[in-house]
Write a structure and sequence with these properties.
two-stranded antiparallel sheet; about 100 residues; about 25% helix; first zn-finger domain of poly(adp-ribose) polymerase-1
Length: about 100
C-alpha cells in the first residue's frame, strides 16, 4: 500500500517508541499526542473594549495562555490548518 506522507502524519522520530494519547478539545476523540494539532493562544480576562481603555490609561491587563489540541478533522473544519495540495506537500517535505 502506498504511503501518502513520509512521516505518516505524525511527528514521532525513529526509535522513539509509543507516544501518549490526548483528547481533542472539540470532539473529544482520543488521538496520539504527536499527531494532535496544538494551538496556543493568549486570552484576556477582560472584554476587548474595556481592555483598550485600560491600556490607554497605562494599566496592565493580565492575559492567560489557552492551549487546545485538535484532531486533524476538527482542525481542518475550524480553519486551524488548511488542506494542502500534492505539490504543496512535496514542497514542504523537501525543505
Amino acid at each position: 500500500m502506498p504511503k501518502k506522507r513520509k512521516n505518516r502524519g505524525r511527528s514521532k522520530g525513529k526509535g522513539k517508541g509509543r507516544e501518549g494519547y490526548t483528547y481533542c478539545s472539540n470532539c473529544g476523540a482520543r488521538i496520539p499526542k504527536d499527531k494532535a494539532i496544538r494551538v496556543e493562544r493568549w486570552m484576556s480576562l477582560v472584554d476587548p473594549q474595556l481592555e483598550r481603555e485600560l491600556k490607554k490609561q497605562g494599566a496592565v491587563v493580565l492575559r492567560k495562555k489557552v492551549v487546545k489540541e485538535y484532531c486533524v478533522s476538527c482542525a481542518i473544519h475550524y480553519g486551524v490548518v488548511k488542506i494542502g495540495g500534492y505539490s504543496e506537500r512535496l514542497a514542504r517535505e523537501e525543505t
